[in-house]
Specification:
binds dinuclear copper ion, mainly beta, binds (dicuprio-$l^{3}-sulfanyl)-sulfanyl-copper, 14% helix, Immunoglobulin-like
Length: 634
């Protein structure tokens, strides 16, 4: 064996040992002590330690057939989807297509999904970042999860009873929706989201080369209607956002106070801002008709720029290019994460009414600015007074004591840093169980690491990212799981399972397919019983039922050139019996859940015989669940 191979082998053995120890840790249970790799005679202290570790490991183990304690909603980043994970197992339970196009469910292909996508029905990709659940009185209410699409400037809503996207909205007159959070109190009346990039207004070809005329806006959506409520013009580029626990304020980190276009230009100032929005005073102005509109859009717009010196906004200077914006679950603070500065800035929400009343200056609202390490991006809380900040450059999570950090800012000599834990590698967002609500329970922290490097078997030039689960229930943070993920969990939220009540079957009057049902009615078709072909010029609507293992029709005839809509109603009332419909050679594929109606439209442009079949495994005779579309020559 040459020297090089030897060193590689030694290296791998070293890593192998540490990995085995790690796997042992998650294998848990009775195997725990043995899995530690402690051999020979143990001292009583070693034994106690080993037993402790085994108990600790067992606590996080979710055995076969056991259910997780938490639902996690993960953004799928530029894959455009949302994923549901179970915690602490970190098993992926489901994928919810949102801004992507998805083959198994037919999302983006079916008539129902195209209607939901509305004006962006033809857009096939997206970049999902921030999933957040609706709340009532600062607590998750299990109704909706909202998520932004930075790429196409959209916001979508997922209904948590069926775990499907039910609304999508393109935000007018801004580009790249980034930060998104919900109003927490009294309930999620609004979704707040940031327009990041500055553009000419309206962006119709004017002012192309005059960036001084560009601006972006803070956007407020009516959560129930999923329509724009209002927009606020701001200075700089908005990054992340969060809301308070009084219902009055929202805040957003804001970079590029220089309003430059190139990287060098955007980095000149030492400080950028945390912009605070007084939602109540904006609402009041709009009610009183004090607003403008932009271009063709009818959305009320108010001017919250610094020089407008309005009652709508305050610009609190913070070290340059802040990134994450997080509200502490006790409702006391907004925390702006430094990114380029090793600090985070703590803003007292209680002082904000005085700031807006002109009684104090902007920097007086700041009560702490602890130095934490390199590249602080996002902060999470445990409800016990501790904060956990990701350090992107240091590849660490730093646990710190909020009260002590404030004491230090007031000149007291205290150590506010409690622990630094290595994560693997370069963490962006992190999230604690229930941590963005009053119910923050301090059990687990997830660190969404952007690079996995050597943590998993290599998969070619493109590697998985790494979602790491950390036990924070004790004094010390403990890493308990590595979870490889595909592009790219920007953010997640973790909700106790008691808050989410998904349905087992669809109800026949579900609004997601209401328009399809209405069309059937216009065609004189009763979806639950009829199997019929309706011809309407060269548009053909084929209605059929499905009940395992049969489609209501084993063949239907159309003419070459017809536009064919196949509409299927799944009569099965059995939990978990989903059928599929796939039409060979026509790019048509969809899911039909139990008791649901789904439809898909395609052009029959070639004469011949085309088989359709069920592609969701439903029955012992699933393979036989099929039929023929006969296309006659025109
Ligand atoms: S951002 S890595 Cu899109 Cu939430 Cu911070
Ligand atoms: Cu129906 Cu497979």
């Amino acid at each position: 064996m040459d020297e090089k191979t030897k060193t590689i082998e030694q290296e791998e053995t070293k890593k192998g040992i540490s990995r085995r120890g790690f796997l042992g840790a998650s294998a848990a249970g009775a195997a725990g002590v043995a899995g530690l790799g402690l051999t020979g005679v143990m001292t009583p202290a070693q034994f106690a330690q080993a037993a402790d570790k085994a108990r600790h490991d067992a606590k996080h183990n979710v055995g076969p057939g056991e259910l997780d304690e938490y639902y996690g909603f993960w953004s799928g980043g530029h894959s455009g989807e949302v994923r549901i994970l179970g915690l602490p197992s970190m098993r992926e339970l489901m994928r919810i297509p949102v801004f992507n196009t998805e083959s198994a469910t037919g999302w983006g292909l079916t008539d129902e999904s195209k209607r939901i996508k509305g004006d962006s029905a033809d857009v096939l990709c997206g970049d999902a970042h921030h999933p957040h659940m609706s709340m009532t009185d600062g607590r998750y209410d299990g109704k909706y999860v909202f998520i932004n699409d930075k790429l196409n400037t959209r916001v979508a809503r997922i209904r948590c009873d069926v775990m499907k996207t039910d609304k999508m909205l393109t935000i007018p007159n801004v580009q790249a929706i980034h930060g998104l959070r919900v109003q927490k109190v009294p309930h999620t009346k609004y979704v707040f989201c940031n327009g990041e990039f500055r553009i000419p207004q309206p962006n119709d070809g004017r002012d192309l080369n005059d960036p001084t005329k560009y601006f972006t806006m803070f956007n407020v959506i009516d959560a129930e209607k999923m329509e724009m409520a209002f927009q606020v013009i701001v200075d700089g580029n908005l990054d992340n956002t969060d809301a308070d626990y009084t219902g009055r304020f929202a805040a957003a980190t804001c970079y590029n106070s220089e309003e430059g276009v190139t990287l060098a230009e955007t980095m000149r100032n030492e400080r950028d801002w945390l912009v605070v929005f007084d939602i109540h005073s904006i609402e009041k102005a709009i009610k009183a008709g004090k607003f403008q509109t932009i271009g063709d859009s009818k959305v009320p717009v108010v001017d919250g720029r610094k020089k407008a010196n309005s009652a709508y906004t305050k610009y609190i200077p913070v070290p340059k290019s802040p990134h994450g914006c997080n509200t502490s679950p006790d409702g006391e603070y907004f925390v702006a994460n430094g990114k380029l500065s090793p600090t985070v800035t703590i803003v007292s929400i209680k002082k904000l009414p005085d700031l807006f009343a002109g009684k104090i200056k902007e920097r007086d609202a700041i009560v702490g600015e602890p130095e934490l390490g390199l590249g602080p991006l996002h902060t999470a809380f445990d409800g016990r007074g501790n904060a956990y900040t990701t350090l992107f450059l240091d590849s660490q999570i730093v646990k710190w004591d909020v009260k002590k950090a404030i004491e230090a800012y007031n000149g007291k000599k205290v150590n506010y840093i409690k622990q630094k834990l290595d994560v693997h590698y370069q963490p962006g967002h992190n999230h604690t169980t229930m941590g963005e609500t009053r119910d923050a329970d301090g059990k687990y922290l997830v660190s969404l690491c952007k690079f996995s490097k050597d943590r998993f078997l290599p998969t070619g030039p493109l590697r998985a990212e790494n979602d790491q689960l950390i036990d924070i229930s004790g004094e010390e943070m403990k890493l308990v799981h590595d979870g490889p993920t595909f592009a790219e969990p920007h953010d997640c939220m973790i909700v106790h399972r008691s808050k989410v009540k998904p349905k087992k079957l669809w109800t026949r009057d579900d609004p997601i397919f209401a328009e399809t049902v209405a069309q059937a009615k216009r065609d004189g078709v009763t979806l639950e019983t009829d199997n019929k072909v309706i011809r309407d010029g060269n548009r053909v609507r084929v209605y059929m039922t499905s009940i395992a293992p049969n489609f209501g029709m084993t063949e239907f005839n159309v003419k070459q050139g017809d536009t064919v809509t196949v509409c299927i109603t799944n009569l099965d009332q059995v939990e978990d019996v989903t059928h599929g419909f796939a039409m060979c050679q026509h790019g048509a594929s969809m899911e039909i859940g139990p008791q649901a109606t789904s439809s898909i439209t395609f052009k029959a442009d070639k004469p011949g015989v085309f088989w359709y079949y069920c592609h969701w495994f439903c029955h012992a005779l699933h393979m036989e669940m099929r039929g023929r579309m006969i296309v006659e020559k025109a």
